[in-house]
Amino acid sequence: MLKLTREEIQSLIEKSNASLRKRAALPFHPSEKLGTRCIINCIQQDSYVAPHLHPNLNGQEIWMPLQGKIAVLIFTEEGKINDKMLLSSTDHIFIEIPNRTYHTAVALERNSIMYELSEGPYFPDSYKKFAPWAPSENDRERAVEYLQQLKRELL
Predict the structure, then answer these.
(1) Domain presence at residue 1
(2) pTM of the complete model
C-alpha cells in the first residue's frame, strides 16, 4: 500500500529548497521496477527543468497537482510552445503527456508539488532525451535566462 504523510511532504519541500536544482523527488518504487511507477515531485519557482521527451513507446506521463501551481509546456520539435496548461487544485487537475513529446514543468508558486505516474523501468541513460534547442541544466546562466523567457511567454 502506498501512502504519503504531511511529514514526508515537508521533508521533500526542505530537500527541494536545499537542492542546487531547486527540486526534489520522492519515488515510491525502485527505478528498475516494471510497470507503473509513482513519484512525488516538489519544484520551486526558480527550478529549471530542461525540456525533454521520453522516447520509449511507454514513455507517457500523468501529472496531477497536490499543492501550488505548475505550468506544463508542450513544444514542437523545433522548440516552439505548442500547448500550455496550468496544473493546480483550481485549474486543471490532470494531464497526460504523450510519449515522444517535448515538455517541461515551470513552478509558478513556492513549494509546488505534483504526483507523477509513469511506466518503468527507469534507466537514466535512455529514459529521457533532452531538447537540442534548450539550454542544459548545467549551464546555469543560460538556463536562468531561458526559464525567465518561458515565464514571460506564459503571461
Answers:
(1) no
(2) 0.92
Least Cα distance to 143 among 131, 155, 125 occurs for 131
Q: Among 58, 66, 155, which Cα is nearest to 113's? A: 66
The DSSP secondary structure of the chain, one letter per residue, reads -----HHHHHHHHHHHHHSTTSEEEEESS-TT--EEEEEEEEE-TT-----EE--STT--EEEEEEES-EEEEEE-TTS-EEEEEEESSSSB--EEEPTT-EEEEEE-STTEEEEEEEEE---TTTS-EE-TTS--TT-HHHHHHHHHHHHHHH-
The tally of domains found in the chain comes to 1
CA atoms within 13 A on the CB side of 83: 9
pLDDT digits 0-9 by tens, 35-61: 788 999 999 999 999 999 999 877 899
CATH label of the domain that carries residue 79: 2.60.120.10
Q: Could you tell me if 60 and 98 are in contact, meaning their C-beta atoms sit under 8 angstroms apart?
A: yes
4 torsion bin: left (phi>0), alpha (psi -120 to 50), beta (else): beta
* Residue 87 domain boundaries: 6-154
